[in-house]
Amino acid sequence: MAKLESSFKNMLLVLAGISLFSALTLGSMYKLTEAPIAASKKAKQESAIKAVLPPFERIADVEEVTVEGSGAFKVYKAYDKADKFVGAAVESFSKNGFSGEIKIMVGFDVEGSIVDYSVLEQKETPGLGTKMLDWFKTDKNNQNIKGKNPAKNKLTVSKDGGEVDAITAATISSRAFLEAVQLAYAAYSNNPDAPDMTSGATAKQEAADSTTVAVTNN
């Protein structure tokens, strides 16, 4: 009986040793891969920003804009050589994809129209939802959203009364993608350089105009 106890203790010690070794190995691997993964994500993000914006000279420091009920969104505002605002890229997301969260980068020009988009992350069904990478920028029927303005165009799937053709057999993925686009616009329009769709002027311009009037009246 004593021999059995000894063997059981030895087995526990061996298992504990294996577990500790595995944990240390996994921890080391994580440390080794953490930096390259972060660098890869950053490079993909920077590439996406360039791809979705009109020509620009510099990008301002990232701003975090909160959209009520949806969370915070990163906005990258772009300026030309004369330091004039030319548009903004917004990192957006939807948690309503068929297989979970979808992350995209959407670029808007000074009028608020969509320049382009890039899919950053998605886990949708291969051959179906994954078609979002190119579907909504393809000039076929009513797929293409480039050049459309979320303030003027109804960017929901045609099945829901919108203007956009859903990906064939992937309506849920399409709805989530377009939700992310709309949230991106909500974040974009919540900045002083974005145009007011009713007046055509930016909030910054309106503020300057009101200041000028106030000075003149004095």
Write the layout of secondary structure elements.
Elements: H1 2-52, E1 58-59, E2 63-67, E3 71-79, E4 85-97, E5 100-109, E6 114-121, H2 132-135, H3 171-188, H4 203-217
Antiparallel strand pairs: 1-3, 2-3, 3-4, 4-5, 5-6
Structural descriptors:
disordered C terminus, six-stranded antiparallel sheet, 218 residues, alpha+beta, globular, single chain
Structure description:
The protein is α+β, with helices and mostly antiparallel strands. The protein has a domain at 52-203. The chain contains 4 helices and 6 strands, in the order αββββββααα. Strands 1, 2, 3, 4, 5 and 6 form a 6-stranded antiparallel sheet that branches. The longest helix has 51 residues, at 2-52.
- Report mean pLDDT, rounded to a whole number: 84
> What is the string of helix and strand elements?
HEEEEEEHHH
**CA distance, first residue to last residue:** 102 Å
Number of strands: 6
Unreliable spans are 197-218
Fraction of residues in β-strands? 15-25%
SS content category:
alpha+beta
- Count of helical regions: 4
Radius of gyration: 25 Å
Helical residues, percent:
40-55%
Largest sheet at a glance?
Answer: 6 strands, antiparallel
Approximate shape: globular
Provide a brief overview of the structure.
The chain is globular. 28% of the residues are buried.
